[in-house]
Amino acid sequence: MPETPQAAFARFIRRAIDDARSDRGWTVTDLATHTGVGRSTVFRWLAGDWQDYPELAKVRGFCAALGVPVAAAFRALGLPDGDTAGPRAGRGAGARVDEDIRIILSRLADPRVAAEDKKDIREMLHYLARRPTRRAS
Fold it and tell me: Where is each HTH cro/C1-type domain found (predicted)?
């Protein structure tokens, strides 16, 4: 059975906290202060206690403060590596797909988007991921 994004991200966070503790002597309180991510959020991430993806800005800030590649955090979350800041220019249809995915992920992470809308997005993604593909003619 594949690992859930919650478990993979919790493992990533645990490793980052352990490294910060051993390399810098930081407690979770120090970590929260330096990364801008609150203690309760850190503990939720550690417990895998989230249904909507963590706020990507917080993940980026956490990684930047610890010198950890954001791409590693995104991989743990099961997201495309790193650049969700904007569209990728000059790549044709691939850029449009990347932009669509970025928009979907940002909506799932946006606390202003209603839970019902997020549920609809997840159900549609679930449907699309599992429907049979058509054969090329």
Answer: 17-73
pTM of model > 0.70: no
Residues 6+ apart with CB under 8 A from 44: 50
Q: What's the pLDDT tens digit per position in 57-98?
A: 899 889 999 988 888 899 888 887 654 443 333 445 556 667
Token duo for residue 58: 């917080």
Cite the residue boundaries of each domain of the chain with CATH code 1.10.260.40: 1-82
Q: Please, are residues 63 and 73 in contact by the beta-carbon 8 Å criterion?
A: yes
Number of other CB atoms surrounding residue 99 within 10 Å: 15
For residue 86, give the DSSP letter.
S
Predicted confidence at residue 17, as pLDDT, reads: 93
Burial class of residue 35, CB neighbours in 10 A (0-12, 13-18, 19+):
buried
Distance, CA of 69 to CA of 15 (rounded, Å): 13
